[in-house]
Design brief:
The structure holds two protein chains of two kinds. By secondary structure, chain A is an all-alpha fold. Chain A is built from twelve helices and no strands. Classes of the chains: A mainly alpha, B alpha/beta.
């Protein structure tokens, strides 16, 4: 048992997790203590360190909530609530997830389309690439409200504007990765197709496209995480009433730090699951293609 | 008696063929005044140090490189026409099999490009895999095969096109000597069976002498033909032929040619 544990990554991961939790509790005491001292001073009461210690971990609106407070909040808003309830974190996660997936699908298609264009046309290569790179240097927080407002003006509301922001973030890694992937066949492989007098379409479908699949999946892992960020950011400026972004925003309006942290954890869990899922599909597909050994 | 007199149909003819690459350091004369005739059914090797243009010459024949001067005809037409007619099969230094295709699918690749029927494809796959002694490996992926087997599969892929010529660019250069010997023997058998014209680029003297009917000794800067040596060892060539006096004489002649054509002090 111990030997199998020591060989894997379980022990290192648990060690780091434990270290983070210890560090977190230390920060909880450090950051929340001033409030307790303040309270005691106002009440003209003496407060011992051990009293401070216990009180910092059960504040209603702590500067930094303790891990167990976050866990209790997550438990109460997931397992203990009906998933259709507006107070259920699962419900909010689903709202965010749906626009994440839609934006991810759009972004993937757009990224692939751009890459195909860039690889096949020198004009597009020269004219598009600088714009694609520039698009990612604009802070998404600045452009997200514009997108929402503009789309709203033309009557597009709800899921689509958020998905659009997800697409804005996720097309980039796909485009860059696929340009690299579609160009990955070496000169010898291109020459070989040339000796067969293969058409451009044959060259694409028989050589470029299959060669790019490993690159595609690497990009998709980045893109799906970016999509989630896009969806959450897209929920912030709309004053949306549902979604993880809305939970974050509402939490910060009312100083509900525990709610903010539980929404953050839900987002992190969602991101990890999505990336893992893409990884599973990646391995399946490569195995199917015979490229994984 | 000269071999070239027996086989009189020329398939490749060049006249003052030259190719100059323009680079930032000035022009590089990759090929200069190449006059060469290769007849049907011959096995001709290009040998020389790196930079002598042997691969470039092969690539010009295959229409992968465009000459800048002189004339070249392949099967009576331009290299481009020969390529479009799929007159040759090209074997590269690396097998270059597609990792996402099984061996049979790899051999089907040129056949798919040509648009042959599934049945015709299957027949050619079976026939050519048998020819390179790889039957039974149809469903394997390239990584499941050794380097030598992969190169054999790539020869089968070139043969599947059913070309008149095989153009081979140091096909066994990356393999170890034992595998190389074995493949040299197999290639000779294949040549005897198929009667195809073979143009073979190598930098190994024993390989060139063992395989060829004629050896074109080339020298660099500018890339040119230094000497063409007849290699009349007969059709029966077991590996032991390499210890005979005749073989050693020709090998010596090639070595001398390489030395004279190339100053190592440059």
């Amino acid at each position: 048992m111990l030997t199998t544990l020591s060989k894997g990554s379980t022990i290192p991961i648990l060690t780091i997790t434990a270290a983070i939790i210890v560090f977190w509790y230390a920060c909880v005491v450090w950051l929340n203590a001033p409030f307790e001292r303040d309270q005691a001073e106002r009440a003209n009461a003496e407060i011992t360190f051990s009293q401070i210690l216990s009180k910092t971990m059960e504040q209603k609106r702590p500067v930094l909530p303790a891990p167990h407070q976050v866990i209790v909040e997550i438990w109460n808003t997931t397992v203990m609530k009906n998933v259709t309830s507006k107070r259920s974190l699962v419900y909010h996660a689903w709202i965010t997830l749906s626009s994440t997936l839609l934006g991810f699908a759009f972004g993937t298609l757009l990224g692939i389309a751009l890459a195909v264009g860039i690889v096949h046309s020198q004009t597009l290569d020269k004219s598009l690439m600088p714009w694609i790179i520039t698009s990612q240097t604009i802070p998404i927080l600045a452009i997200a409200p514009m997108i929402i407002v503009v789309l709203n003006a033309v009557g597009i509301q709800g899921l689509l504007p958020k998905a659009f922001i997800s697409m804005y973030l996720s097309f980039f890694p796909v485009a860059v990765g696929m340009v690299k992937g579609l160009r990955s066949p070496d000169i010898m492989q291109l020459d070989l197709m040339h000796t067969y007098n293969a058409s451009k379409a044959q060259l694409f479908w028989k050589l470029r496209w299959p060669s790019s699949i490993p690159f595609l999946f690497t990009s998709l892992k980045v893109a799906i995480a970016a999509s989630l960020v896009g969806a959450i950011v897209g929920e912030l400026p709309t004053g949306a009433i549902s979604g993880l972004g809305a939970r974050l925003l509402a939490g910060s309006y009312y100083g509900q730090t525990i709610q903010i942290w539980s929404a953050l954890f839900m987002a992190a869990f969602l991101a990890a699951t999505l990336v893992w899922l893409v990884g599973v599909i990646d391995r399946r597909v490569l195995k199917q293609m015979g490229m994984a050994q | 008696m000269n071999k070239t007199e027996k086989m009189t149909t020329p398939v490749i003819q060049t006249d003052k063929l030259s190719l100059t690459f323009e680079t930032n350091d000035g022009p590089v004369h990759a090929l200069s005044d190449i006059d060469l005739t290769i007849n049907e059914g011959e096995f001709v090797s290009f040998i020389g140090p790196s930079g002598c243009g042997k691969t470039t010459l092969l690539r010009v024949i295959a229409d992968l490189e465009q000459p800048t001067g002189g004339e070249i005809t392949v099967e009576g037409g331009t290299p481009r026409e020969a390529r479009l007619n799929r007159a040759y099969g090209y074997v590269f230094q690396a097998a270059g099999l597609y990792p996402w295709r099984t061996i049979e699918k790899n051999i089907a690749l040129p056949l798919e490009v040509m648009g042959l029927s599934k049945q015709e494809q299957q027949e050619r796959i079976a026939r050519n895999l048998a020819l390179v002694d790889l039957d039974g490996f149809e469903k394997k992926y390239p990584w499941q095969l050794s380097g030598g087997m992969q190169q054999r599969a790539s020869i089968a892929r070139a043969l599947a096109v059913e070309p008149d010529m095989l153009l081979m660019d140091e096909p066994f250069g990356a393999l170890d000597e034992i595998v190389r010997d074995h493949l040299n023997e197999q290639l000779l058998l294949l040549w005897a069976k198929t009667k195809k014209t073979v143009v073979f680029v190598t930098h190994s003297i024993p390989e060139a002498v063992f395989l060829s009917t004629r050896i074109v000794v080339m020298s660099p800067r500018p890339g040119r033909i230094h000497e063409i040596i007849d290699c009349d060892l007969g059709d029966e060539r077991p590996l032991e032929i390499r210890e005979t006096t005749k073989f050693l004489e020709i090998a010596h002649q090639v070595r001398e040619g390489l030395r004279l054509g190339h100053s190592y002090d440059e």
